[in-house]
Amino acid sequence: MAGNVWVVADHWKGTISDATYELLAVGRGVADSLGVRLEAVLLGHEARQLAASLGTADTVLYVDHPTLADATGLQASRAVAALASQRAPAVILVATTNVSWDLLGLLPGRLGAPLVNFCRKVEVIDGALQVTSVLYGGKMAVTVAAAGPGPVVLAVLPGTGSAAAGLGAAPPPVEEVSVDLAGDVGVRLLAYEEPEAGDVDITQQEALVAVGRGISSEANLEVAEDLADALGGAVCGSRPVIDQGWLPLVRQVGKSGVTVKPRLYVAAGVSGAPEHVEGMKDSELIIAVNTDAGAPIFSVAHYGIVDDATDVLEALAEAVRKRKG
Amino acid sequence: MKILVLMKMVPDIVEELEVAGDGTSLDQEYLRFIVNERDDYALEQALLLRDRLQAAVAVVAPEAPEVDDVLHTALAKGADRVIKVTGISPTAGTRSTAAALAATLPGIHGVLPADLVLSGCQAIDDLDGFVAPLLAGALDLPYLGLVSRITVDPGAGTAVVAKEYAGGVMARFEVALPAYLGIQGCEKPPRYVPIAKVRAAMASGGIEVVAAASPPAAPPLEVTAMAKPEAAGHAEMLEGPVRDVAEKVADILAARGLL
Ligand SMILES: Cc1cc2nc3c(=O)[nH]c(=O)nc-3n(C[C@H](O)[C@H](O)[C@H](O)COP(=O)(O)OP(=O)(O)OC[C@H]3O[C@@H](n4cnc5c(N)ncnc54)[C@H](O)[C@@H]3O)c2cc1C
Ligand SMILES: Nc1ncnc2c1ncn2[C@@H]1O[C@H](COP(=O)(O)O)[C@@H](O)[C@H]1O
Question: Whose CA is nearest to atom 7 of ligand 2?
Fold first, then answer.
């Protein structure tokens, strides 16, 4: 008999992530098409109550262990690999979040299983699993026939399914299972550090002007600030801009930064890599400026302009000021 | 203390990417290669540690177009050794690559054991897995990824590292050495090195060349098609002189009550 479909529940600081519900929605479809069960794997310590919202799965397999409290991936991957070797699932869906990152990386080695990264779409065609992944910062898509004699691990990008569709209506049955996680893995959590609070909270702004590497120099930030001023909003950035120290970390939008949903998001010189897009795709109105007509940002933006970022921001600030009088 | 840094070349995605005639891979003809961005941060982390502690930094990268420039630059920045491994194709896939590196590294004199092995986190072409954790597993080292700061206590044989979570939150972990860390950021951007210094490194011909040991290759994933992504939607493009475009945008904003 074919193995089941597994979703590894991704949770942090006591909350199940939206990415988990998205995976459950995707996994439900895959399991139904294959005619197998959908099982959620929940790892943690004294975290059994988190299973309550995972009811889109037929069952939750819960592993409780003190070393899973602050999952570093080292123990979490051991736990999933041990369970998988007992129960032989066909597919293991894991969200590409910072929380699940190390688990994802280590699991294929522990299982001797293949992994498909950057998954954007997971389908069952003629009884076989077909995955579409985006590579090269979102500039190319590949179709992969994901078949293995054993389980296949799918690293699924956040934003791939509908979180609302994956949120369970009723608590599922929970089966508590134990795996041997004895031994020191050599890594110990000391503390979490919140980022230094900034002057503005970009999650609270109605208008955001986001600058990416295409802004070219720190000096050009002034133009972005000026437009943000004119709009009554704030400037934020993609990772390379924050890495350069041009803006503080609290202004980073994306996977390692914050998720924003302003009424207006102007993306200037931002390519639209999946890790950036997951933090801004739900903005009400997205206007992108990029010199490359093929930049992936144009597939999430509502309006696009192929031109120099600084020139456009400058002209736009002027036009906005003129309207506002 | 010894630090090993692994680097690799990836296609420069600023360039136009084209699909090759086989319909499943990139056309190599027009590709330009650059170092995977995060690997430069891994090198910077290593050099910062080297500046603070008595440490020797070795850099290993597989042969690929433009890799000599990257290795010469690493030397000019202060790496003690740079080693080019031949026989690992840039398109080999992560599982095969990790296996080949795991088989090759122990045979390179003086590189292993290292107290720290550093590399970047997730290259843009990593379809079938992450090299770093696979290699860490094969070398039997604990692995922590998405690390963006490292402080080493050589006396205690430990490092304290900051790992990125969402929202700019960092977690501090204590890690027993030796360990393998996947680097995502650094306390400062990679250092700049004047071109004259790179030229000097080039003239000194300091790249060591080692042939890869060849373990059985891991079966690759079966890629059935490659194409530019089919987008669910596409922006309505606004064209014309920049001032006109700005006026059109202002109209749109006004119509939505955003001005
Ligand atoms: C685990 C992980 C977490 C990450 N977290 C984040 C995150 O939180 N946030 C984030 O942003 N990224 C994150 N990234 C990085 C992400 O993958 C991309 O590398 C990053 O988003 C790229 O930023 P960018 O678009 O500014 O730069 P690039 O991708 O370099 O794009 C620059 C763009 O500017 C355009 N351009 C160049 N010149 C001009 C000009 N004169 N005018 C207009 N356009 C121009 C180019 O055509 C290009 O499209 C993360 C990556 C990983 C692996
Ligand atoms: N063939 C290789 N040779 C040396 N280092 C590599 C190779 N492949 C990957 N790496 C390193 O591992 C990093 C992360 O890749 P990955 O773990 O595959 O996401 C890369 O950025 C490099 O630092």
Answer: B8
